[in-house]
């Protein structure tokens, strides 16, 4: 099913401005009272969320509204689940262009056709933390794609005030590697979902929710004792770990490099750690594989996806990162990534110096 092409730059306050430009009372208009910003998107909600407050300027807007079970039952009457669904994760495409998504022990969501509103209801056994992880990750990705964004499946740390992205699928080790960087004093920008904005001079990477999802062994090894250890869902040992201000980065930064992680089953065939620079064509393939949300497909999205990833591959340094998935090797991986970044910085500086000398 194709999705409507959205507008990727809007005035998030346009709907609540008076003709003179001042703000009306949101309560009087019935607008949700809470306003936040995540992934560069304004999020308005009728319930409080664990997100930074709205700080001004944004790429788009999404509104969250709570609803009773009857709303979802009515919406799904006569609708069949997509055959790619399973007993835990179910989704369906409705005739009006909206999308229904449900995680059995977490909650259910109805994403509007234009991606501007998400109606939601938590499952009775779900914690607030678990519900918000799916609400602000998987469910929000449907809205982002419908609005015309192409998010990547990546976890990002900040090194020397620049974003370094680790790209890969589920269980590829993105968050574990990021935790190793946090141990060394670096900060997290986003975990799992990455939104980018291109300009003529740089590619900006936007911060996600201030938390990291890790298995207990990894969390204990690299982050030490932490409170509020809540499970991501009822069927996993993975924890949702909120990060304090010293471990997170709250503003957009320029994207310096992307490391495409080799799948664990393939990496285990090689004993060492290696970094291989990819050609633009190879980088394009890895970036397409690393796009977030493959449920929404259609000619317009595929065309947009092709253009976005081709442009990113032409502008961005993309490396293939291979390493055995052993906790004791992660510090070695971190060291090699940092050395690779330093080499890239020195090469760029030398190129600038040579270019400058030509015109002296």
Model description:
With 360 residues, this protein is an alpha+beta fold. The protein has two domains: 14-146, no CATH class; 152-358, Phosphoenolpyruvate Carboxykinase, domain 3, CATH 3.90.228. It contains nine helices and 19 strands. Strands 8, 9, 10, 11, 12, 13, 17, 18 and 19 form a nine-stranded mixed β-sheet that branches. α4 crosses α9 (330-358). The longest helix has 29 residues, at 330-358. The protein is globular and about 60 Å long. The N and C termini lie far apart (57 Å).
Q: Report the sheet with the most strands, covering strand number, pairing sense and barrel closure.
A: 9 strands, mixed
Give me the CATH fold name of the largest domain: Phosphoenolpyruvate Carboxykinase, domain 3
Query: What's the CATH architecture name of the largest domain?
Result: Alpha-Beta Complex
Give the CATH level 1 class of the largest domain: Alpha Beta
Q: Indicate how many domains the architecture comprises.
A: 2
What distinguishing features does this structure have?
360 residues, alpha+beta, Phosphoenolpyruvate Carboxykinase, domain 3, 2 domains, 7-stranded mixed beta sheet, 19 strands, globular, disordered N terminus
Summarize the structure.
The chain is α+β, with helices and mostly antiparallel strands. It contains 9 helices and 19 strands.
